[in-house]
Amino acid sequence: MELETVLLAVGPGDADRIDELAKSVVEVAKPADATVILAHVFTSNEYDDVLTRLEFDRATDEIDPNDVARRHQSIIDLRTVLEEHDVDYVIEGSIGEHGPTIVDLATSNDVDRVVVGGRRRSPTGKAVFGSTAQEVLLSAPCPVTFVRSDDPEE
Asked: CA spacing 20 to 30 A to 72: which of 19, 56, 61, 154?
């Protein structure tokens, strides 16, 4: 299978592993000359918080989730790395629950690979809170690369 499009999906929990995610997506995308979709997925509450933090004027601005994603530090950091390695990319912002939204993005963009981050979780943590990465691994329409943080869940 030829690799043409890679989805790198990030959320608020990925700030501490941006370097690892960037390295992994470059290793996957660059040799294949694939385009990377840099997607930041926000829940509704996270989106509201980011709009406030990034000082979007909700009264006068027509707010596009892609613009919000472009201004988010995680995406800025990832763009810098992709540009340094001459990897083509597009930016997409999405609002929804992390796991299903990532799977929907992978499906609607017909991607060939998904790259997601996560951390080691205790069995109780998995049972009580679920796992975005686990949902993506089980439901994505293509292979998934999981980039694990070495920091165990608290």
From this structure: 154
